[in-house]
Write a structure and sequence with these properties.
single chain; mainly beta
């Protein structure tokens, strides 16, 4: 018996995720591995992304995930598949999770790929009104309402970005703006702009 061939050594450090080989079992050449190894213990997440969004992604984009039983998990895009499934219209993205120790293979995750970050002025989404002339807010100066045209940007978690038209600290009507007009005074509920 050649004992030099009886020792199994992994080519890399990592975690054994699955053991198919058994003591006293006969090894075959069917192609099944004896062990499945997670290299360096870094579990990746394979995510499905809709075809209309996948072209915006880049390797290295930050990823924010909510994972079942764990909560928030951060990572980054490591690989973007060049193929979109013709039936589901979804493309696959591999997310590196930077070796978070409590992740387990098979857990469900959902989340966001962050393609850009910026700091900008925002108001509650209900503050921005629109009519035939465009977007506007009702700004309050000296306890009097004035219609202020704005250029509205992104909408995110009930906040609306204001690209132009307001300055930090301006006071605006937060809700029910359709019931007010230029020149109205003595408003009960006001809210300032924020970031």
């Amino acid at each position: 018996m050649n004992l030099d061939h009886a020792k199994i050594v992994s080519p890399v450090d990592g975690l054994v995720a699955e053991r198919l080989g058994r003591l006293r079992a006969i090894a075959t050449s069917a192609g099944e591995p004896l062990f499945r190894l997670i290299a360096d213990g870094h579990i990746e997440i394979e995510a499905e992304v809709v075809e209309t969004a996948i072209s915006s992604l880049r390797v290295g984009n930050e990823v924010s995930l909510d994972t079942a039983g764990i909560g928030p998990v951060s990572g980054e895009v490591r690989l973007i598949s060049p193929v979109v499934d013709p039936v589901t219209r979804l493309g696959l993205v591999r997310v590196s999770t930077n070796g978070q120790s409590d992740l387990r293979v098979g857990l469900f995750s959902s989340g966001w790929v962050i393609i850009t970050k910026r700091t900008s002025l925002s108001v509650p989404a209900s503050t921005v009104l629109t009519d035939a002339t465009g977007a506007y807010v009702l700004r309050v100066t000296n306890n009097t309402i004035a219609r202020q045209p704005v250029t509205a940007g992104l909408l995110w978690q009930d906040r609306r970005e204001v690209v132009q038209g307001l300055a930090q600290g301006d006071i605006v009507v937060a809700r029910a703006g359709a019931f007010f007009a230029d020149g109205d005074v003595d408003l009960p509920q006001l809210e300032g702009t924020g970031q």
